[in-house]
Q: What sequence folds into this?
C-alpha cells in the first residue's frame, strides 16, 4: 500500500452551523437532508481518483474554514452521523464520518473513501495569512508575468499589498500545517511500521514554506535517514508564477517607501526578502509541478536572480542543485474529468437553470430564434479574469457583427468570490456599472448577467449552447473552462459547433504548443487590444469557423485529470537524487 497526504488551504468539505442545523431539522421532520457541496471545486475534481479506494490510502489536510469544523473533528456530531447511516442517508446521499484518534476523520461518500484532517486556525490568524497575505499579496503578484503590469493598466486589478505582520502569520501557518503533516505521517497511523512509500503533496501558493518546515520537523522528531527516504514531498503550483524582471519596479517602489517612511529596522521584511524566502523554501520539495514551461522558466529566473544555484536539464525536467540536494521541476498542465463532462452533454441532457425569474435555456432559445449569435462567459468573479475588459471586446465584436446585418447577445455568468475583500467589492461595483453602460450604448437585451454562478452539471450544458465562448483572463494559471467548452461541443453537428476565444493563460499556451489555431475553432486575442479582438471574432463568425474534431479528440484523450495526477505522483516518487 502507498500512502498519500494531500495538503491544501481549502479542504474538500467544511461544516457550518447552519448546514448541521438543517440536517437535524430534516431528520426531525422525516425529510432527507440537503447534500453537502462536495466535489464542486476544481481541486477536488482534480484529486477525485485519489479519493477512491485503489493504490493510495489518502488523507486530505485542509484549514478549518467552517465555523463548526473543530466541533465535527472532535466528535461532537458523531451521534448525528451515526443516525444518518442508520436511516440509510449515508454514505450514498450524505457523507458518513467516523472520528478516529488524533482528530482524524474517515470520510465515506458515494464512491469516495478517504481520510480527512482539519488544520486548526483561529479567525484572526486565518484572516491575516489567508485573506491578506495569500489573497491580497501573493495572488495578484503571481499573475504579474509580463508587461503591462495590470495594477497600473486596468481599473480592477489591485496593487499587491504587502504587510510584514501578514507574512509572519503566513510563515506561522506553514509551521502549523507542517506540524499536522508530521503528526499524520509519524504518529496517527504509525506508518513507519508499514511498507510502501509515503507522499506528501502540497497544493498551491498558500503552502510555499510547508515542505521546508516539514523536513526540518522530521529531523527534530528523530526520524532516521532510512525512514525519511520513504517520505517523498512534492508541490503543485496551480497559479502562474511571477516574472522576476517584471516585478522589479514593485520591489523598488517598496524600498523607496521604506526609505521615505524611515523604516530602517535591520531585520524588517520587505517584498523582496519575503519573496526570496518563499522561492528558496520551495526547493525543499523533491518535485515541483507547474502548469506550463513558461512558469517553470519564471521560477528558475527568480532563483538565478537571488541565489547561487546550478540548473541543468534532465529530459523533460529541470534539476536545481543546491548544497547537497537536488530539486526537480517540470510542467504538467492540469487536466479535467473528461468522462464526466461528456456524459453530461450527451444527446438528451438539457440545460435547466432559472435565476430571479429568468429561464436561462428559454432566454437563449428565444435569442437563437431571432438568429442572434450567443456569446458566453463563465468563471469566478475575480479581477484576474478580465471581466470588464471582456465587455469591451464584446462591444467591438457586436459592432462588427452588425455591419454584416447580424445581432448577438452575451450571457455572462460569474460565481461570487472572496466577497469580504475590498478589491473584489471594487470589481463587483465596476462590473455592474460597466454592464449598465454597455447596455445603454448597445441595447438593453445585449447582455444578460447572472451573478450567482451555475452548478455542475448545468455549467457544462450552458457551454454547449454557446456559439462564442469568451475565456479572456488577464492571466490565468490554466483556466479549464477553455477545455470544458471544447468538450461540450462534441455531440453537436460539426457545422453547429461554436468557437473559443482565448487570451493569455495556461490553456492558450498548451493549445498553441500543440498547434491548434483558427482552423480548429480557437481565436487567440490580446485582452488589452479589444478593437482588434472584436474584429477577429466577427471575421471568424463570417468565415464559419468551428471547433474541430481534432481539438476535441486531443482534449478528450490527452487532458485527463487522472493522467495529470499520476504523472505528478510518479515525478515526486522518482525525483530525489544526490547532487
A:
Amino acid at each position: 500500500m502507498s500512502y498519500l497526504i494531500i495538503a491544501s488551504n481549502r479542504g474538500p468539505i467544511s461544516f457550518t452551523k447552519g448546514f448541521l442545523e438543517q440536517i437535524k431539522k430534516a431528520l426531525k421532520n422525516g425529510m432527507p437532508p440537503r447534500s453537502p457541496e462536495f466535489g464542486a471545486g476544481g481541486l477536488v475534481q482534480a484529486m477525485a481518483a485519489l479519493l477512491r479506494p485503489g493504490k493510495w490510502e489518502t488523507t486530505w489536510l485542509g484549514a478549518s474554514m467552517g465555523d463548526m469544523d473543530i466541533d465535527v473533528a472532535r466528535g461532537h456530531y458523531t451521534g448525528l452521523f451515526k443516525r444518518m447511516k442508520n436511516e440509510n442517508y449515508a454514505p450514498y446521499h450524505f457523507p458518513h464520518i467516523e472520528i478516529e484518534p488524533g482528530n482524524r476523520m474517515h470520510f465515506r461518500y458515494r464512491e469516495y473513501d478517504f481520510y480527512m484532517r482539519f488544520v486548526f486556525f483561529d479567525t484572526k490568524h486565518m484572516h491575516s495569512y489567508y485573506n491578506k497575505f495569500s489573497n491580497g499579496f501573493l495572488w495578484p503578484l503571481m499573475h504579474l508575468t509580463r508587461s503591462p503590469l495590470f495594477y497600473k493598466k486596468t481599473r480592477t486589478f489591485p496593487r499587491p499589498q504587502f504587510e510584514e505582520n501578514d507574512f509572519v502569520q503566513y510563515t506561522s501557518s506553514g509551521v502549523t500545517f507542517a506540524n499536522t503533516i508530521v503528526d499524520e505521517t509519524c504518529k496517527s497511523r504509525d506508518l513507519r511500521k508499514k511498507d510502501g512509500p509515503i507522499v506528501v503533496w502540497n497544493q498551491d501558493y498558500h503552502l510555499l514554506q510547508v515542505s521546508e518546515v516539514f523536513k526540518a520537523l522530521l529531523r527534530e522528531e528523530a526520524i532516521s535517514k532510512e525512514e525519511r527516504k520513504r517520505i517523498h514531498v512534492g508541490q503543485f503550483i496551480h497559479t502562474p508564477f511571477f516574472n522576476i524582471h517584471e516585478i522589479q519596479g514593485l520591489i523598488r517602489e517598496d524600498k523607496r517607501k521604506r526609505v521615505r517612511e524611515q523604516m530602517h529596522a535591520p531585520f524588517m521584511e520587505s517584498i523582496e526578502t519575503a519573496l526570496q524566502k518563499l522561492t528558496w523554501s520551495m526547493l525543499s520539495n523533491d518535485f515541483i509541478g507547474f502548469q506550463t514551461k513558461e512558469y517553470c522558466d519564471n521560477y528558475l529566473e527568480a532563483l538565478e536572480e537571488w541565489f547561487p544555484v546550478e540548473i541543468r536539464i534532465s529530459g523533460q525536467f529541470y534539476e536545481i542543485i543546491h548544497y547537497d540536494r537536488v530539486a526537480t521541476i517540470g510542467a504538467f498542465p492540469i487536466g479535467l474529468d473528461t468522462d464526466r463532462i461528456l456524459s453530461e452533454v450527451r444527446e438528451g441532457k438539457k440545460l435547466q437553470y432559472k435565476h430571479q425569474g429568468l429561464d436561462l435555456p428559454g432566454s437563449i432559445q428565444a435569442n437563437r430564434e431571432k438568429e442572434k449569435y450567443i456569446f458566453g462567459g463563465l468563471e469566478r468573479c475575480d479581477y484576474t479574469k478580465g471581466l470588464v475588459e471582456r465587455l469591451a471586446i464584446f462591444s467591438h465584436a457586436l459592432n462588427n457583427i452588425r455591419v454584416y446585418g447580424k445581432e448577438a447577445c452575451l450571457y455572462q455568468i460569474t460565481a461570487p468570490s472572496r466577497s469580504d475583500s475590498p478589491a473584489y467589492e471594487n470589481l463587483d461595483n465596476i462590473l455592474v456599472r460597466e454592464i449598465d453602460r454597455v447596455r445603454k450604448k448597445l441595447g438593453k437585451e445585449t447582455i444578460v448577467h447572472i451573478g450567482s454562478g451555475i452548478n455542475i452539471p448545468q455549467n457544462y450544458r450552458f457551454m454547449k449552447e454557446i456559439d462564442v465562448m469568451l475565456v479572456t483572463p488577464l492571466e490565468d494559471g490554466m483556466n479549464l473552462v477553455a477545455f470544458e467548452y471544447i468538450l461540450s461541443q462534441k455531440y453537436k453537428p460539426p457545422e453547429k459547433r461554436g468557437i473559443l476565444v482565448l487570451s493569455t493563460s495556461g490553456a492558450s499556451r498548451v493549445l498553441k504548443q500543440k498547434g491548434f489555431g483558427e482552423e480548429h475553432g480557437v481565436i487567440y486575442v490580446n485582452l488589452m487590444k479589444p478593437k482588434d479582438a472584436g474584429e477577429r471574432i466577427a471575421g471568424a463568425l463570417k468565415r464559419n469557423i468551428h471547433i474541430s474534431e481534432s481539438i476535441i479528440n486531443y482534449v478528450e484523450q490527452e487532458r485527463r485529470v487522472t493522467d495529470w495526477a499520476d504523472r505528478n505522483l510518479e515525478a515526486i516518487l522518482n525525483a530525489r537524487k544526490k547532487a
